[in-house]
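Working notes for the structural subgroup meeting. M.R. asked for a predicted model of this chain before we commit to crystallization trials. I am recording the input and output together here so anyone reviewing the notebook later can reproduce the run.

Input as submitted:
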Amino acid sequence: MIKSLNKNKHIYIFFSLIILMFVVLLAIRLGSVEYSFSKILDALLSTEMTSDKNIILNIRLPRIVVATIVGANLAVAGALLQAVMQNPLADPGLTGVSSGASLAAIIIMLLFPQYTYLVPIVAFLGGAVACALVYTLAWKNGIKPVRIILAGVAVNAILGGGTSLLSILYSDRIQGVLMWVNGSIAGKTWEDVRLLCTYSVIGLIVAMFCIRKANILQLGDEMSSNLGVDTNKYRLFISLVAVFLAAISTSIVGVVGFVGLIVPHIARLIVGSDYKYLLPFSVILGSGLLLLGDTFARTIARPIELPVGVIMAVVGGPFFLYLLRRGKA
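Returned structure, recorded in token form:
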């Protein structure tokens, strides 16, 4: 019986990979200029750098790769934080990563525009500092999930207020940073792909080593303690991995919400709560969801491109309310 269930989970993962490949092909095909699949193949096989090949190879493919990696990172970060906080409605935003990265990036873009090239590094540091502040405030004879959530709400409110204040004081300059604040994958290059891949591969590999720890934390503090597990160390280590994945993603594409909330829920409904299957499935599902959202964002109002963060908020908001309505919190 157990072997049969596990076999079904492998089948779900296999079919999700096929669907992801289809979404990738769809993302290459659709845009301000639409290509047939035969034309895509001809362009890629061409020995000359035609305009079609340049669009596909240097504009759409880097964007697709960035979307898939960021989607995977945010989905895994959300799944890990839900184990840490023992709360199915937890996501990377609760740790202050998004608001910290956003405030740090806006400070650079509005006050020091000559250093815009430092935005990814500064945003990463801002997210990391915000998260460290949340966990420092939450620490009291150990880390409890409820205290993390409460500290996260407070820190997010403070940092969000700082972002709003700067937006008002420098309203004449805010137009140039709106795309980043709302999460956008537009204009990403192979250089962004290389930077993102370097850190994401490390983060995702380490995340897979958190599977056993995450499963133990799901048992609850009392059961974990009976097993001789130091839950504080487990929570801290898993949180660091999740924050690293969320911070590097936010530093590259800006603030994209709800992926870390939606994907783990859908994954649990399909493959269950065992992180042995949940994390790999979340990687595939997160990649496909964000890529689909980005494809929709750049085609729904052509030739205008919408930030993918706006699309995910429109989709994620109702989904969040649906979870609350069903009493999943």
